[in-house]
Design a protein that fits this description.
By secondary structure, the chain is of the alpha+beta class. The protein has one domain. Helix content is 28%, strand content 22%. The protein has a three-stranded antiparallel sheet, with no helix packed on it. Strands 4-7 form a two-stranded antiparallel ribbon. β5 and β6 form a beta hairpin. α4 packs across α5. The longest helix is centred in the middle third of the chain and has 20 residues. It is globular. 34% of the residues are buried.
């Protein structure tokens, strides 16, 4: 869960609890985009919105696109963006100040570099200095920031999606993004121990299978 309850509003109303975003090749000639939210956190699996469209509607095959998603509150007042997802764990591992986190969630990627890149660079330098994992923590932090900002998910259309330490190219359902982002943060391999469940992944739309049984109640 890369954005689990990272805003005050998400904690107050879990229907606005944006979790994850996936972008990968679907059936021949199609691209899949999926977003998960969790309106009943702790009691059932997340709700998932899956869209599969002809790739040509997005762009020519082999073109690079950069995607991001948002969750907005609307219905009783003017629509207000309350959360966004471009890359995993941004507001858990890299942007931790609550005020800055809310500012980030209500902004757009176009504002990322001037508003947030230095904050993340400073945090990265501190982590790698403490870990002793970079000869020049500031230089390493700058290289990572150039990958992270603007915070969008890059993907080469009609290619095999892979979100890895060496590079980001979409996100497949089997990618362990938490390990990747924590390893980038520390500049050292990190395995936090949680495996990506594979048994309920489908080979066709909607790609997300039935939720796993709850071992407590099922």
């Amino acid at each position: 869960m890369s954005h689990h309850f990272d805003t005050v509003i998400a904690r107050e109303d879990p229907r606005l609890n944006l979790l994850d975003f996936y972008l990968f090749r679907g059936r021949p000639g199609t691209t899949v985009m999926a977003m998960t939210v969790n309106p009943n956190a702790g009691t059932k699996a997340p709700d998932t919105i899956v869209v599969e469209v002809p790739t040509q509607l997005i762009g020519d095959p082999a073109a690079t696109v950069r995607a991001w998603v948002t969750v907005s509150l609307c219905g009783h007042a003017p629509e207000v963006q309350v959360s966004r997802w471009g890359l995993p764990l941004m507001t858990h591992a890299f942007i931790t100040d609550p005020a800055v986190k809310d500012d980030y969630n209500r902004s757009t990627p176009a504002a990322d570099v001037p508003r947030f890149s230095q904050i993340v660079a400073d945090a990265l330098a501190r982590v790698t200095q403490l870990a002793g994992s970079a000869g020049d923590p500031a230089a390493y932090a700058q290289r990572v920031v150039e990958r992270l900002f603007p915070t969008t998910l890059p993907y080469v259309l009609d290619s095999a999606a892979s979100f890895g330490f060496a590079g980001f190219n979409g996100r497949a359902l089997t990618d362990n993004v938490e390990n990747v982002m924590l390893s980038l943060q520390a500049n050292t391999p990190i395995d936090q121990g949680a495996a990506v469940a594979r048994t309920n992944i489908l080979g066709e739309f909607p790609y997300f299978g039935a939720p796993h049984a709850d071992p407590i109640v099922d």
